[in-house]
Write a structure and sequence with these properties.
Strand content of chain B: under 5%
Distance between the termini of chain A: 48 Å
Radius of gyration of chain A: 24 Å
Oligomer: heterodimer
Radius of gyration of chain B: 23 Å
Number of strands of chain B: 0
Largest sheet of chain A: none
CATH architecture of the largest domain in chain B: Orthogonal Bundle
Order of helices and strands of chain B: HHHHHHHHHHHHH
CATH class of one domain in chain A: Mainly Alpha
Distance between the termini of chain B: 21 Å
Number of helices of chain A: 12
CATH topology of one domain in chain A: MetI-like fold
Number of strands of chain A: 0
Number of helices of chain B: 13
Helix content of chain B: over 70%
Helix content of chain A: over 70%
Strand content of chain A: under 5%
């Protein structure tokens, strides 16, 4: 064996196990799903499934329930990301400063992202309770009207977005802090010498320089927000009615409650394409900047 | 980070502190509420107006959860699955991340990170069908395989950043000293990057511990993990908030402690990966 081949073999030995594993466990199932999506398979039915071509896809695209869940997913994601980006940038700028107690407060501020989503959802269910929940009690104390939170079809999606914001704003904050730390300190000095006021520095110098970091963090969160499952499933299971039935939940119900395997497979493929499309659009937008 | 001068006057330090403290209140309040509801009696936990500070604290709910439910069994299940995932994630992920960093195989890193983008539920349906065929439903092995799909790309993604920081001369020096590629990886590179390894182990552990979607489908009575157990307790025990909050606290506390300890390294790892990715 010559030297080049030996190096190539060494490279393969390092990379192959993980790559092979991911291929087998991820790519293969996706191909299997693609195959399933062309059959009218139902797990509960005994007769062998028939090949139906694109029927499952047509059914999904013509189904108002499918479009309803697309719309809810998009609304939830936009709401959650808007809140998290504004809050995350503000927190990142704040924690970039040096002040007393910064280390401890920062640790406390990022803790929500480590908590089990199921526990978080459980506590929010108690806090959202319209009659005995603590949030309505607090609203009452400061003279604001009570809300039905997750128990009303109008307020359920914003309430879920609020929970997502509570838990994942720290990710935005961490990435903004990383961005700020990587900027050359001359940027800050220069701004001071020029006598630029704080807000002008922020708006005209810092935010444009931070944009790549903010976009990276938003892409990361966008991907996760589109796939939100745990908190929604625990708190509402798509309800009331189907007013919070996001794609993930719709898909889950089709696959594991009604066992419409073929139909669910088609939605899996559509959902995966949608997520990859949105993420790649954002990444392309980032490059263009 | 600490050496960078702020762009405003440091004299405003106390104002910054006040602002940061104020903004932390909602974050902390949810944890505080979880804890105090768990320490209330059944009756107090559903009283209105709710007590914020003054009530008769009791540990009865913790006693109930630990003795009247198979909590300890679920805890052991969760530990087996989480530790198994961390171990397998390191064994597979460390060499891969090192290979990518050492030979600058960027295409591979993009491919591996892309697997993270695909919705988890996309795999769940085919896995469910395949796992049924191979008798992997309700087994630790099946759950660990499932969890690895999240943890393995994460370990690789985080570790690439740490391995890239090892100066190239070190590899070459080790090779000249007669170390094989694998020998220098194990004896020189791994000890140098142990902080990164600790951070990615803890992060994998947290993700595996908290995961809910995979166990509700792939686990059964025998291997049920804590998040799935909390969920089923919710549907059976909707009335007893104190017991539910005690369960939530017991599930969350170990992870928060781990996260608090390793927070610095995790943040460093997340940002080095995030900035490059």
């Amino acid at each position: 064996m010559n030297a080049t081949n030996r190096i190539r073999l060494t490279k393969m030995l390092f990379i192959a196990p993980a790559s092979l594993f991911l291929f087998l466990i991820l790519i293969f199932p996706i191909l299997y799903t693609l195959f399933q999506s062309f059959y009218n398979k139902k797990l509960t039915q005994l007769t062998p499934p028939k090949f139906v071509g694109f029927d499952n896809y047509v059914r999904a695209l013509q189904n108002p329930e499918f479009w309803n869940s697309v719309q809810i997913t998009v609304t939830f994601t936009v709401l959650a990301l808007a809140m998290q980006t504004v809050l995350g940038v503000a927190l990142g700028l704040l924690y970039h400063q040096t002040f007393k107690g910064r280390g401890l407060l920062r640790t406390l501020a990022i803790m929500p992202m480590a908590a089990a989503p199921v526990s978080v959802a459980l506590i929010f269910v108690m806090m959202f309770n319209p009659t005995i929940g603590v949030l309505n009690y607090l609203l009452e104390q400061i003279g604001l009207p009570k809300s039905l939170w997750i128990y009303d079809s109008h307020s359920v999606v914003p309430s879920l977005a609020l929970v997502d914001t509570w838990q994942y704003t720290p990710i935005l904050m961490i990435m903004v802090m990383a961005g700020l730390a990587s900027l050359p300190s001359e940027v800050f000095e220069q701004a001071k010498i020029d006598g630029a006021r704080g807000w002008q520095t922020l708006w005209h110098i810092l935010l444009p320089m931070l944009r790549p970091f903010i976009v990276a963090a938003v892409v990361f969160r966008l991907n996760d927000a589109l796939k939100t499952f745990d908190t929604v499933y625990v708190m509402t299971q798509g309800g009331p009615g189907n007013s919070s039935e996001m794609l993930n939940i719709y898909l889950y119900n089709q696959a594991f409650a009604y066992f419409n395997t073929g139909y669910a497979s088609a939605i899996v493929i559509l959902f995966t394409l949608l997520v990859l499309l949105l993420v790649s659009l954002l990444i392309r937008g980032r490059r263009a900047n | 980070m600490g050496t960078v001068r702020s762009w405003k006057q440091p004299a405003k330090s106390w104002l910054m502190f006040a602002a940061a403290a104020l903004i932390s209140i909602p974050s902390l309040f949810v944890f505080y509420w979880m804890l105090i509801v768990s320490l209330k009696s059944d009756v107090d936990s559903q009283a209105y107006p709710p007590a914020f500070l003054f009530f008769e604290p009791s540990f009865k709910s913790y006693g109930d959860v630990l003795t009247e439910t198979p909590f300890v069994k679920y805890l052991i299940n969760t530990l087996i699955v989480s530790l198994g995932t961390v171990f397998a994630g390191l064994v597979l992920g460390l060499p891969a991340a090192y290979g990518i960093a050492r030979w600058k195989l960027h295409a591979w890193s993009v491919g591996i990170v892309a697997t993270r983008m695909i919705p988890g539920i996309s795999f769940l349906l085919p896995w469910y069908l395949l796992f049924r065929e191979f008798g992997l439903i309700d087994t630790y092995f099946g759950l660990i395989i499932a969890q690895l799909t999240i943890c393995l790309p994460m370990v690789i993604w985080l570790m690439i950043g740490f391995f890239e920081e090892v100066p190239a001369e070190l590899h070459d020096a080790a090779r000249i000293d007669g170390c094989t590629e694998f020998g220098s990886f194990v004896r020189i590179i791994l000890p140098l990057t142990r902080q990164g390894i600790a951070a990615s182990s803890i992060l994998s552990f947290i993700y595996a511990w908290n995961n809910f979607m995979f166990p509700i489908i792939l686990a059964g009575q025998k291997t049920r993990t804590l998040p799935a157990a909390v969920f089923s307790a919710m549907s059976f025990e909707q009335i007893n908030w104190a017991n539910l909050a005690a369960m939530a606290t017991l599930v969350t506390l170990p992870v928060l402690v781990l996260f608090g300890i390793a927070q610095k390294h995790i943040v460093a790892g997340l940002t080095s990966g995030g900035v490059k990715g």
